[in-house]
Write a structure and sequence with these properties.
alpha/beta
Length: 362
């Protein structure tokens, strides 16, 4: 089905050989541990300057954050609401979603700030594509606009072979497939209200994403390096030892690239506009939408709630000692949603990488 099968404008990268799953997650955690002291050392001696999560006026803007009843998504929703946005909490569980709405609203009331955003719960089950369709229909009727879409919800592990309502692998279905369907359905709503309005000559030196541009934030992970592009295999329910988590995060990073290639390439639009009347007409039809992948880092979040119960005490101890908090982990997502990100950046992460648009762990 064209609505659920991942198809991209650009040819997929070469298929990666995935190492044993037992090796993948320790590698990601190890890099977090190694990069943190390096980055802290460089910041302490003034060699690099840390970047803080941006803050701006989002009054009148509408945002959707999936999986926002807990974890990184909840903190991301709060930060956007604190800037004045109307934030739709798109969650599967009505009870937990409504509790998040009440809690975030109460928290916002006692938080100093100049903007008054608010939170609205809407039910969305990413493991059921029919639920995705129903959510989109209700959202379009209710709001008729969308400025920020944060595809945050995710599952890190399952205890048994599990499937979505349509029979796809649960992890791949929730982490990627449901978000793909959500994004594809809502994308016309985003670019219909965010046209490129540059004046050509004055924009030649522009190196940052336009302030009025709609944003799509796709939660990825350092573990995407261990994913593969065998979509037929990834769509088939897998045993826990053959988790599709890494591949789902690779697919999210590829979705970001595909969106930008199809509808979000700022420089191509400017080039078309400078080409003359025909180019200007072409640019006028091009949407001002930009997608960015967010790697939040190693975060102590509820995404690991399905790990084996016997291992959870050890896992929680390690996460408490070495992982980021949810509030720290949302920094990258918020930067992707509202920050003045360089045009050539489509993947933000908090790990230390020379030359990258990195964010602090603090």
């Amino acid at each position: 089905d064209d609505h659920v099968h991942p198809r991209f404008a650009a040819p997929p990268p070469p298929r990666f050989h995935m190492p044993p799953k037992a090796v993948c997650f320790p590698l990601g955690g190890l890099w977090a541990l190694v990069s943190l002291p390096i980055y802290a050392f460089l910041v302490f001696f003034g060699i690099v300057k840390p970047r803080r999560a941006p803050a701006k006026d989002l009054s009148g803007k509408v945002a959707i954050v999936t999986g926002s009843n807990c974890g990184i998504g909840r903190e991301t929703a709060f930060e956007l609401g604190k800037m004045g946005a109307t934030v739709v909490l798109a969650c599967r569980n009505p009870e937990r979603g409504e509790e998040a709405q009440r809690s975030l609203s109460a928290r916002l009331e006692i938080t100093p700030g100049d903007y008054d955003g608010h939170f609205v719960f809407m039910e969305l089950d990413l493991s059921d594509l029919r639920s995705v369709v129903d959510f989109c229909e209700c959202f379009v009727k209710r709001y008729g606009k969308l400025d920020i879409l944060v595809n945050n919800a995710g599952i890190g592990h399952t205890n048994m072979k599990s499937a979505t309502k349509q029979g796809y692998d649960l992890i791949f279905g929730v982490n990627y497939l449901g978000h793909f369907a959500l994004t594809r359905t809502l994308l016309p709503l985003m670019y219909s209200r965010h046209q490129y309005t540059g004046t050509g000559e004055s924009d030649r030196g522009c190196t940052r994403i336009a302030e009025g541009q709609a944003r799509i934030v796709n939660l990825s992970s350092v573990m995407h390096h261990f994913g593969n592009t065998n979509w037929s295999e990834n769509l088939t329910p897998q045993e826990p030892s053959e988790s599709t988590y890494c591949s789902s995060k690779l697919a999210m990073a590829m979705l970001t690239r595909a969106i930008n290639l199809r509808v979000g390439d700022e420089e191509k639009r400017k080039g078309a506009e400078r080409a003359g009347k025909s180019g200007a007409e072409m640019a006028a039809k091009c949407p001002g939408v930009r997608a960015i992948s967010a790697n939040p880092g190693a975060v102590h979040s509820s995404i690991w709630r399905f790990c084996p119960s016997l291992l959870m005490p050890i896992i929680n101890l390690v996460m408490t000692l070495f992982f980021l908090t949810n509030q720290q982990g949302c920094t990258t997502s918020v930067a992707c949603a509202v920050g003045a990100v360089p045009v050539d950046e489509d993947y933000l992460q908090p790990y230390f990488m020379l030359g990258s648009w990195r964010l602090p762990f603090e």
